[in-house]
Backbone:
């Protein structure tokens, strides 16, 4: 098996996600292992962020940053073929100590730690911070589409 890259840039991340254009929110993967991934993002301050509303970028958007971290991690672990589509099925213990992301000066750090996984689902603990400021913590479950099914639009 070839060695794994420790870090990935935005273009490499976009090739791993089904998200196109501005919806690919992560700027880099700083490092990853079989159980955890650390990503960074600066796009929360972008006035054209596709998740931004009239009042700015609500902190709940941090869940999408975390979900993309989970998706990149799953794709990196899927070295036996193309990654399978996944659907966020449950979020528990969600904590949002801030109200908005767009007024946070520091880049977002996204950590997704895989707690449990089988052939059809994974559970991750998510943590998003901006510098020392906690932004989001949650436990998220993703259900993977069966390998023999085509994704639907």
Residues:
């Amino acid at each position: 098996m070839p060695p794994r890259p420790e870090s990935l840039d935005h273009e490499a991340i976009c090739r791993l996600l089904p998200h196109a254009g501005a919806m690919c929110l992560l700027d880099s993967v700083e490092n990853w292992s079989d159980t955890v991934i650390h990503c960074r993002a600066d796009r929360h301050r972008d006035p054209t962020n596709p998740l931004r509303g009239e009042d700015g970028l609500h902190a709940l958007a941090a869940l999408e940053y975390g979900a993309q971290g989970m998706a990149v991690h799953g794709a990196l672990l899927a070295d036996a073929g193309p990654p399978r589509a996944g659907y966020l099925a449950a979020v528990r213990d969600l904590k949002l100590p801030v109200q908005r992301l767009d007024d946070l000066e520091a880049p977002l750090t996204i950590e997704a730690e895989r707690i449990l996984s089988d052939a059809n689902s994974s559970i991750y603990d998510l943590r998003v911070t901006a510098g020392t400021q906690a932004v989001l913590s949650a436990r998220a479950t993703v259900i993977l589409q069966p390998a023999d099914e085509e994704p639907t639009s």
In short: Strands lie at 8-9, 28-32, 36-41, 86-95, 108-117, 121-130, 133-144. The longest strand covers residues 133-144. The chain has a mean pLDDT of 89.
